[in-house]
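Subject line: Sequence and fold of a protein, written as structure tokens
Body of memo: The sequence and its backbone structure tokens, given next.
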Amino acid sequence: QVQLEESGGGLVQPGGSLRLSCVGSGFTFDRYTIKWYRQALGNSRELLAQMNPFGAIDYYVKSIEGRFTVSRDDAKNTIYLQMDSLKPEDTAVYYCSTWVAGNTFWGQGTQVTVSS
């Protein structure tokens, strides 16, 4: 079955960096668009970016442009979210997602906390 698993979250000071990873299994990873979302406490889930199977970014939300970078390594069935210049408002649970055979699949999420 389709599975996604995020990792790499943690506690970081403002201005710091983290790299999140999302590993996919149960589907042909290199044929699908993968999306990164986040959900802060009390807020709805927000689409941050999506990368298509050709490695092109279809969407970046304005608040992360210039600070976050998406990349993928299809040989490892992995997509990354490199987050630099982190701000307290980036604190959230970060999720990856894909749409396969008419269904949306989510990972369990990884917590990112930006605080001094």
About this structure: The mean pLDDT is 96.
